[in-house]
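Annex B. Sample input.
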Amino acid sequence: MSAAGVEQPFDDGRPFPLTAIADEIMERHPGYRVEIIGGHLLVTPSPDAPHARALTKLMRPFIAAGLDDGDSEVLQNIGLRLPTGAEDYAVPDLAVVDADIDDHYIENIAYDPVCFRLVLEVTSKNRKNDLKTKAAAYAEAKVPLCVVVDREHQRLHVLAEPSGDAYEYHRPYAPGELVTLPDSLGA
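Annex B, continued. Sample output.
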């Protein structure tokens, strides 16, 4: 039995871009979501039916409130450029964005955070990513509102007033509680 050496793409001493690795993962594993946050790859599988169901039900009030017409849109899985690193971007489950979002395209499927009014995450198996890692990145990007649906603990977290890598305002809601979002959202 013999062994042959295998060339690695890292052998030339140049840094290998994380975006290239992210693109390769998405190409080889369709349906997986790849994000780069703080210089780290975050890979999540396709959502399950309860995740998709929660997202669909949450879209309805935003659309009914008129946030999908006029000067804003309600979009799913749209890339948001993060200021945490040269290649960093996140993909929130749902976002309310300015209607001129196409004018804010930066690169690598990501848009300038200035056009994001709200990001919403529905937790999956690793809820810490949504509640901690991504919420901190959204705060650092100065996204005004972050909403996290914690399926495991049946809570809705509303975060507002970004400051550094945290939100100054954080209010959890229990099932059945009425949630009123700030007027700054536009509805």
